[in-house]
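Reopening this one. Same input as before:
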Amino acid sequence: METLRELWDYPVFRVGASALTVGAIVIIALSFLALYVVSFWLKRLVARRLLARTSLDLGAREAIGSLLRYFLLFWGTIVIIQSAGVDLTALHVLAGAIGVGVGFGLQNIANNFISGIIILFERPIKIGDRVEVAGIDGRVVAIGARATTVITNDNIAIIVPNSFFISEPVVNWTRNDPRVRFKIPVGVAYGSDLRLVEKLLLEAAQEHPEILKDPPPVARLMRFGDNAVEFELRVWSTTLVHQRGKLISDLNFAIFEKFQQHGIEIPFPQRDVHIRSVAPDRVPRGE
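Same output, byte for byte:
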């Protein structure tokens, strides 16, 4: 026991006028572990239980929980260091060295952390949003201190640095309103009954269970193209925002079946070649 006590009180290094012993280091390590676990547990308690009873959406609840966790980690760190007997004034030199490190090697990490704080306060994106950024298309599932996790339709998690959402153009499909309009281009052959085509397009949209009745679907005749009369079916949906390919595929199948039933032809590119007659005396010999 005497040996253990001596080892426990053995000074490892000094910070200013304070000496950090083996026991103090062990206590500090356990305290930081407890602080991390408690902050994580408190965030989940606040975001998923207490605030779940309010009218706040999931993104707002997670943002408040994350800010609360950062606040607890910051002040908990100060309390743990002071409780261990470390004079914080002795850490000024260390803080200056860290500042130099941030200016040179850690500026990217600092940029992403500050961007994460801005995202939590301004909320240009939130958990559950459908976003497109830097060629990435997916649903936001987590906003961390350094990066945001986006899940694609292939169930692939992509870790996107927070700075991308501040410095790059971001397409947020569900920023203010969950309703999203989809446009499905359709071409029909010349000579088709255009009013019938409009009616069939609207029927295909109205029969789909995921298409909103308000705003109603509309069919527009866009232009007379080189090979077809070009229509555009415009529909609204809230449930298939994260499965745009499925919605467009379902509508294309329905449109094709209705066109077949009513004899509406979907043309393909064609070219007419006109061969002019050539005088016999101008035909090369041997041909």
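So the earlier flakiness isn't reproducible anymore. For the record, The mean pLDDT is 81.
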